[in-house]
Every structure is written in C-alpha cells, then in structure tokens.
Amino acid sequence: MKNKNNPTTRAKLSTGRGKQKRVVMVSGGFDPIHIGHVRMFEEAKKLGDELVVVINNDNWLKLKKGYAFMPERERKEIIEAFKAVDRVVLSGHKKNTKDISISKELRAVRPHIFAKGGDRHCGNIPTPEVLVCNEIGCKIVNDIGFGGKVQSSSKLLKEYSKKIKK
C-alpha cells in the first residue's frame, strides 16, 4: 500500500538495501484536476522512484483566486487514486498568510527534483522556493507534462460558467 500521508525526510526513503529512492515533488492547486495534471504526474514520476504531490490547500486557493471550487480533501482523495502518485501532502497555508510559496513543504519532503508544470519556468517560480531548492540541493525541472500547458483549471471553470449562464 502506498504511503501518502505525512511528509518524510530523504533519510527515511531508502529501499532497505542502502540505496536511496530518488524523490520527485510537484505542487499545485489542482482545482479542478484536468488532463494536464495527469500528464504532469506521469512525466514527473519517470524522473524518479517516488512522486510526492503537494496540493495547495483551500486557504491558498482563497488567497490566490478568491475561492476553492473543490474542497481540499476531495482533491487529495482523487490525486491519491492515480497510479503515478506515491504520496499526497496538503500544504499548510494558514488563512491570510503572506507567504504563498510551498517552501515549508519542500523542506519537509526534501525532494531530489522539484518538477514544475507547463506554465512554470525559471522566471515565475516563487523566489522562496528557489532558495529552498538551492539550500537542500534539489534540482528544479521545468515544462513537465508532455508539451507544456495543455489545459487550465481557471479556463475550464470560466468556460463552464459561460455555459450554465446560457
């Protein structure tokens, strides 16, 4: 059975034979989840032995876009069901926080690779995340997901909103 609950340090992720598992981490709101996310998970998993998905919690979504479309627990349960995903961690963002990075989660998980989806590149990754990756020796890999950004949660919700208003 997959261990999908608590963040774990690299030291606890050994295979039992002295060989350390290569941990890959991705993050996002996944609100709602779409095919681009699925492709990102599949491609990111190929970069290592264990894929950890950090889900930005409802507090983060409310700060970022004003609302959460799907509750965090539902997003977590759906993502846990994907074959490529080994662990899912909810971000610990508090209400009205000023720091919307996932620096704390990066420090807790200590991945070898931090894989970013098609809409992320060196110029728009939050500085605190870059600093933590440098501190822990984590490589940042951009444009994960088989060809860049193929879908957008915000776009899906806007299109749906237009349809139901007709």
**CATH top level assignment:** Alpha Beta
End-to-end Cα distance, whole Å, is 46 Å
CATH superfamily: HUPs
Mean pLDDT across the residues is 82
Count of discrete domains:
1
How many beta strands in the DSSP annotation? 5
Neighbour order of strands in the largest sheet: 3-2-1-4-5
- Main β-sheet, in a few words? 5 strands, parallel
Oligomer: single chain
Backbone shape: globular
% residues in beta strands:
15-25%
- Named at the architecture level, the CATH assignment is 3-Layer(aba) Sandwich
CATH topology: Rossmann fold
Are there runs of 5+ residues with pLDDT below 50, and where? 1-16
What Rg do the Cα atoms give? 16 Å
Proportion of helical residues? 25-40%
- The H/E string reads EHEHHEHEHEH
How large is the count of helical segments?
6
Keywords: Nucleotidyltransferase, Transferase
GO molecular function: nucleotidyltransferase activity
Protein name: Cytidyltransferase-like domain-containing protein
InterPro entries: Archaeal_FAD_synthase, Cyt_trans-like, Rossmann-like_a/b/a_fold
Question: What this model shows, in words?
Answer:
- There is one protein chain.
- The protein is α/β, with parallel strands linked by helices and 166 residues long.
- It has one domain: HUPs (Rossmann fold, 3-Layer(aba) Sandwich), CATH 3.40.50.620.
- The chain contains 6 helices and 5 strands; from the N terminus they run E-H-E-H-H-E-H-E-H-E-H.
- It has a 5-stranded parallel sheet with strand order 3-2-1-4-5, sandwiched between helices.
- The chain starts with 22 loop residues before the first strand and ends with a helix.
- Mean pLDDT is 82; it is low at 1-16.
